[in-house]
Amino acid sequence: NAGVTQTPKFRILKIGQSMTLQCTQDMNHNYMYWYRQDPGMGLKLIYYSVGAGITDKGEVPNGYNVSRSTTEDFPLRLELAAPSQTSVYFCASSPQPPQGQYFGPGTRLTVL
Amino acid sequence: GENVEQHPSTLSVQEGDSAVIKCTYSDSASNYFPWYKQELGKGPQLIIDIRSNVGEKKDQRIAVTLNKTAKHFSLHITETQPEDSAVYFCAASMIYQLIWGAGTKLIIKP
User: Fold this and answer.
1) Which of B1, B19, B91, B97 satisfies CB 3.0 to 4.6 Å to B77 for a cystine?
2) Which tens digit of pLDDT belongs to each residue from A75-97?
3) Residue B82 φ/ψ, nearest 5 degrees
4) Does A52 touch chain B (CB under 8 A)?
5) CB contacts < 8 A (A, B)
6) Beta carbons of B44 and A48 less than 8 Å apart
7) What is the pLDDT of residues B55-88, one digit of tens each?
8) Predicted local confidence at residue B105, as pLDDT
């Protein structure tokens, strides 16, 4: 049982490039979340999903897109990367709320 | 909407002493309050949680207390050890989401 896995661990992008951050969970959780964490700061919710085919915006969705075609996968797409998107991105999953969320190890993204 | 305030932002304690981190929330509909520990370079890890029908919960050296009337909850760590050094986050439930506190950096002095 691997829990929540994220790839890649690190990535450097040039301004204007695009990429997809991958997130997979093997706990059969319906609820999944994407957060960003800037250095020394707290967690900000980007998008979340309550099940396959259903997604909704969080606090800071601009510049990002998500899809949820399966229960296991919840990729985050960055289009036209900007320096303001330099951050650590965490994916999390949860059983039926209200319950705790289980986090992946994160992807450290730098946009230059 | 829900708002969670967390204090202090930094807490420095002597090894072996106790540490207390406090959070307040605004929405009386919140009924689940988890605490997370984040070590450097890692994702947050759930360490203890409490539901609104319980006033206190303990797990070895850590405990959480909840005062629903005052809308605040606290994390207590006793007999602190070097491995307790980390950033701790509190959160409160809101429908499908968790609303997060800003975090407390706990420093354990040898």
Assistant:
1) B19
2) 999 989 999 999 999 999 999 88
3) -55, -35
4) no
5) 46
6) no
7) 999 999 999 999 999 999 999 999 999 999 999 9
8) 98
